[in-house]
Design goal:
The protein is 68% helix and 0% strand. The chain contains seven helices and no strands. The two termini are 15 Å apart.
Length: 136
C-alpha cells in the first residue's frame, strides 16, 4: 500500500469532518491559503501547531504524521535509476571498447582483462545495489 502525503492526509481528514479549508484555517488561526499549501504539499505547518491540527482533525499526532514527504521517494527513485543507468553504461562501454580494440589489433590481453573487469564490476555494483537475489 502506498503511503499518502501529509497534504493528502490533511485534506482527507478535513473533508471527513465536513470542513472547508476556510473552516480549518479559522480554527487554526491562519489563512485558508496556508491550508491550501499544506494540502498541495507546498508547505507544512509549524511544528508547534501539529498537536492543535491533530486535535481539530480528530486524530493523534502519530496518525497525522504517518505521511511521507511529498516526492521524496520519487526523487530517490529517479537518482537510483540514473546511477543504475550509468553503471550499466560503463559495463556496456567497456565490453564494446574491448571488442573494437581487439578487432583493430590495438589491445593487449592485460589491458583487455582490466577493462572487462571494470565493466563487470560496474554491472555487479548495479545488481547488488538493487538487492537482486535477496528476499524483500
Amino acid at each position: 500500500m502506498e503511503k499518502k502525503t501529509f497534504g493528502t492526509i490533511v485534506a482527507e481528514l478535513r473533508k471527513a469532518k465536513g470542513m472547508t479549508q476556510a473552516d480549518l484555517a479559522q480554527k487554526m488561526g491562519i489563512t485558508d491559503k496556508a491550508v491550501s499549501k499544506w494540502e498541495r504539499d507546498l508547505s507544512y505547518p509549524d511544528i508547534a501547531s501539529i498537536p492543535r491540527l491533530a486535535e481539530i482533525l480528530g486524530v493523534s499526532v502519530d496518525e497525522l504524521m504517518s505521511a511521507e514527504k511529498a516526492g521524496s521517494n520519487k526523487k530517490l527513485s529517479d537518482m537510483e535509476d540514473i546511477i543504475s543507468l550509468i553503471l550499466r553504461a560503463v559495463g556496456a562501454a567497456m565490453g564494446i571498447a574491448v571488442a573494437v580494440l581487439s578487432i583493430l589489433g590495438g589491445l593487449d590481453a592485460r589491458t583487455g582483462l582490466a577493462m572487462l573487469g571494470i565493466g563487470l564490476a560496474a554491472i555487479a555494483i548495479d545488481t547488488l545495489g538493487k538487492g537482486e537475489g535477496k528476499d524483500k
